[in-house]
Amino acid sequence: MTCHQSDPNFLMNFRIPSYILVPESSKGETNHDAPSCPVLVFINSKSGGQLGGELFKTYCTLLNEKQVFDLGEEAPDKVLRRIYANFENFKLQDDQFAMKTMEKLKLIVAGGDGTAGWLLGVVCDLKLSHPPPIATVPLGTGNNLPFAFGWGKKNPGTDQHAVESFLKQVMEAKEMKIDNWHILMRMKIPKDGSCDPIAPLELPHSLHAFHRVSEGDKLNMDGCHTFRGGFWNYFSMGMDAQISYAFHSERKMHPEKFKNQLVNQSTYAKLGCTQGWFMASLFHPPSRNIAHMLKVKIMTAHDHGRWQDLHIPSSIRSIVCLNLPSFSGGLNPWGMPNGKRHHEKRLTPPFVDDGLLEIVGFRDAWHGLALLAPNGHGRRLGQAHRIRFEFHKGAADHTYMRIDGEPWKQPLPVDDDTVVVEISHLGQVNMLATHDCRSKSVHEASTTHHDDGEEEDDSEEEDSTAEEFRKFGAADTFKIPDEVDLSHIS
């Protein structure tokens, strides 16, 4: 992809004039058309070792430095609040250049999955009539979000050629809607200790979204702690989240050892060994099994608003609720169901905008390695548009959970038999994707799935209203000034 480099005007397709980005600016004097692909670039300069900082410098050199933001210096909610307030002012001034720029605006976010989820949550909170679609640059360890939409999973190049090539892909990308999911956790206030999530040394971006609700929130209940948040890729609990927690804790304590993507992935695998998950039946008691800790209920379109019990085999030690076909560095735990058995169980291929989560279970780390084999997959447990986890009283004093790559240790009150985690469909957000990406939409007429041969048989083993979910939570500090009505921007 070098043809664009001979065109000196190529970067003008992406540049945004400074007057649009600076508060209280007057209508600009522009003698040319609005950029065809204006972008705002958000970069976590601490991601990818030194790559984040280098990528930030390159984008600042190639574009207007005022349209490139370091997430370590300024949160995305503050940036978007300022710029969309500017757009409102320009609309009052009948600035057609600014309005066309807003209509064509795209966002680029470079960082790990947690960073990408942070920006997605902020955009979701904005509730604009034309929310900008988002492209994700792989700059983490797992990079599941970028990989799912065709942007790759290896850390990117940071020189001019690599950035221009990525910008060309952004210009040519298609837009896809993906489901986002609301997660609620409620438990009685414990007699002793705290039940706040325990992060690896510091709170990840996605856990800023998973916060305790205020007393004035409609979801609040007297005598209970209620937490809420959301995710786009997956929520998991058990073995995989515990390994991830150990990895993140080690990386936070010794960041100098985690500057290479291959080393990071190797360390991740070693932790699975040292924690005994390859010999789980010997090293881990039955209390670590999902079925021992909790009961799982699901609701589908066929259940007419009634919860149904989901059978969890006694050997399952990790459960994943998956929205995108990318997990643990690009693996696909659901695979492609086929055959009569899957038809009878009403299992479908995984679409990213069908309002369904795929529920997959794993027995141990060896079972997880099955994903590396052709047609390998986890234990398909079901699909649902609502999922409810009800913990058994006193079954465990803690568990491990993970949202979109960010893990935490979750204390559980041992005297409470009402600890509940509930996942519900919230809405959709716009993503940018390459035309050959692995994520599929139910609305793509060309989307067809062919069986790649018979897969492993799974039979060898044993109301909340929309108003309640009005705010996704990732931008708790986000507040548009009262005098600015963003609903008028269209």
UniProtKB/TrEMBL annotation:
Q: Which reaction does it catalyse?
A: a 1,2-diacyl-sn-glycerol + ATP = a 1,2-diacyl-sn-glycero-3-phosphate + ADP + H(+)
Q: Which Gene3D superfamilies match?
A: 2.60.200.40, Probable inorganic polyphosphate/atp-NAD kinase, domain 1
Give its E.C. classification number: 2.7.1.107
SUPFAM superfamilies recorded: NAD kinase/diacylglycerol kinase-like (SSF111331)
Question: Which PROSITE patterns does the entry mention?
Answer: DAGK (PS50146)
**Ranges of biased composition (kind: Basic and acidic residues):** 437-452, 467-476
The record's annotation in InterPro entries points to:
ATP-NAD_kinase_N, DGK, Diacylglycerol_kin_accessory, Diacylglycerol_kinase_cat_dom, Diacylglycerol_kinase_pln, NAD/diacylglycerol_kinase_sf
The entry's function note states: Phosphorylates the second messenger diacylglycerol (DAG) to generate phosphatidic acid (PA), another important signaling molecule. PA is required for plant development and responses to abiotic stress and pathogen attack. May be involved in the accumulation of PA during cold stress.
> Which named protein is this?
Diacylglycerol kinase
Q: Provide the species name.
A: Acacia crassicarpa
